[in-house]
Batch of 2 targets.
Target 1
Amino acid sequence: MTDERVTTGVAGLDEMLGGGVPGGQIIALMGSCGTGKTTLSLQFIWAGLQKGEKGIFISLEESEEATINNARTYGWDIQPYIADKTLTLVKLEPSDAKSTIGRINSELPAYIKNNQVKRVVFDSVSLLSMLFDTDSDRRSGLFDLCKHIKDSGATALFTAEVNSENPNVSRDGLVEYVADGVILLRYNETSDGSDIQLSVRIVKMRRANHSRRIKPYNITNNGIEVHSKAEVF
Ligand SMILES: Nc1ncnc2c1ncn2[C@@H]1O[C@H](COP(=O)(O)OP(=O)(O)OP(=O)(O)O)[C@@H](O)[C@H]1O
Ligand SMILES: [Mg+2]
């Protein structure tokens, strides 16, 4: 256990976290669609690449090419890092559940260790969750995945969809329990209903003295910007 903090790539969010996420932890990044989960995950990976830290970005949603293009819209050219193997993009096929889960358990932990990967992203763990047949498989599958990643020492971001009826909890209702930290992204309608405001809250973060305040953020051409000095309401 170390007290190392890992920058998220978002200065305002690092400030809310008291310097970044604790190294080696697994953080669930929860929010409804379009709240910027993929963007923030790419920003987290990009911040690592700028410091020479190896990353692996595992997508169950978008192809490698789509991920490269997605990053590029924010000005992050990840292609050279893929070429020199600082970054690995993996597209998992949700249609092939058995082989996907098999690959994650058999190949990923060794890959992280052998290549000294520092940052891992799963986008999204909600889709991964759906690959399991039963609740008990899902629980033990997610638990095993977390254990493997924690053993490897990498810091991980798991994106998760929220429950459509309750945007404070994840769709599978599990990831917030297996993760060490939970960051929640929200849409709020402004009081006159004419606009929406995005807000971020740190629900939990083990071993960190973090802010519990809700802060506004924007998605810009340069990625996510959290306004840690501003109030939402
Ligand atoms: N250059 C940009 N400037 C401002 N906003 C942008 C820009 N690019 C994308 N966005 C906004 O970011 C949103 C997409 O963010 P992102 O894909 O990270 O969300 P997500 O939470 O991963 O969504 P999903 O649940 O669908 O995967 C878009 O819907 C759009 O509103
Ligand atoms: Mg996404």
Target 2
Amino acid sequence: MSGILAVLEAGHKLSAETLGAAGMLAGELGLAVHSVEPEGEYTADGYTAGLEALIREKGFRYVLFPHTYQVRDYAPKLATRFERALIPDVTRMRVEQGQVIATRQLFQGKLNAEIRAVGEPVFVSLQAGAYGVGDGVESIVEKMPEVGGEVRQRPEARFREAQRAVDLSTAQRIVSVGRGIQERENLGLIEDLAAALGAEIAASRPICDNGWLPMERQVGSSGQTVAPRLYVAVGLSGAIQHLVGMKGAKTVVAINRDENAPIFEVADYGLCADLFEVLPELTAAIRAVRGA
Ligand SMILES: Cc1cc2nc3c(=O)[nH]c(=O)nc-3n(C[C@H](O)[C@H](O)[C@H](O)COP(=O)(O)OP(=O)(O)OC[C@H]3O[C@@H](n4cnc5c(N)ncnc54)[C@H](O)[C@@H]3O)c2cc1C
């Protein structure tokens, strides 16, 4: 039995993270990393048949995917060909007595499930931000064999995400707001603080889901990834899906009235307080200092 296969998706940024995860696993298990970028027009039947042939030929023990829409479409079916189940949307993997244990979140991140893979190959897809990019990871590049067989799907033009009007990824300062703000009408407090700091406004998912701010201002695993010099998180709990989008921030300031909020674990400065009490004072103090 041979090593780890990282299945990459052409042009998808999560592919680099999958290689990072493969590198970590390779270090733990002493196995080589192989990678494959399936070529040709995508169909679930075509990719499943090609990858099945490759995995059988080389006898890969671990097969890692980025958790993309495409992977969700065909990887469960591929795993089933080997009488295995795909372990999807994994945030962490560790090796215990030679066995991989994968962590995935349940109930919107309230519970962590640890899944012990039984039998090989092990099929895992990795959530965005779960691992760093595998720039330094050396992999043996494989080619997906062309396998004939019935293809029952007819692909349409590839889905493209809408162009974003706001690019938070280059912002140096961000004030990010969470559900603690309670109502859309209270967003003025955030706008004032952001204006005083010369910062962009971002938000957690519930704020964008409610339509209080546009989707393009969402930070996190299903939003934008940001790396500002200053990230001020206001009334935001710090769920893992949010943290993966802002963990590159240099200095994190958190304002939350719950001292046990997970955001404090990643904060450089924490203010355990009611945002409605402290924001006006903070904004006024910043204005005074900056002369804004
Ligand atoms: C597949 C998937 C993808 C997801 N993708 C994303 C994503 O990209 N981005 C994202 O953000 N989330 C994402 N989520 C949702 C995520 O799990 C959390 O539910 C979400 O981040 C919580 O948002 P929040 O922190 O604003 O709200 P909450 O978790 O409700 O936290 C609100 C916080 O405000 C504090 N608070 C309340 N009132 C006050 C006050 N007066 N003063 C000070 N503090 C106060 C509370 O103590 C609490 O900590 C995703 C979930 C799933 C399942």
